[in-house]
Design goal:
- The protein is 82% helix and 0% strand.
- It is mainly α.
- The protein folds into two domains: 89 residues, Serine Threonine Protein Phosphatase 5, Tetratricopeptide repeat (Alpha Horseshoe), CATH 1.25.40; 35 residues, no CATH class.
- Helix 2 runs antiparallel to helix 3.
- It is elongated and about 50 Å long.
Amino acid sequence: MTKSYAEARIYLSDFIRVMDIEKTVERVDYVMALHLLGEIHISEARPEDSKRAFTTAQIILERNPAVSEKLPVLEELISHRLQATEKSSRGGKGFFGRLTELTRLEDEVSPGDLTVGQKVDKILRTFVIVDD
């Protein structure tokens, strides 16, 4: 599952980059791509990246009322997700965030890495000590 999100993130980022280059950002599909990218960043415990994607989408919607009129619920959804990411970025990582970090860490490292083992141990200890 993590691998498919990583692949989707790459494709969406490329799509957004191409739309930026072609100056075709005032379209619903561009805003939807930013929204999906923000959701993927949330699932990968990347709050700053998700906030950036949602903020960009919200700016496009505010500057282009015609885009918002095509899919009115999208503006409300993005605004809600942006507020949620701002709230979560103020607090510490919750259980799901720490678990996602652990999963992503497993995907990125080799089994013989001692410093990673120590980090995994630390994360696992926070599961036991901190109860969300």
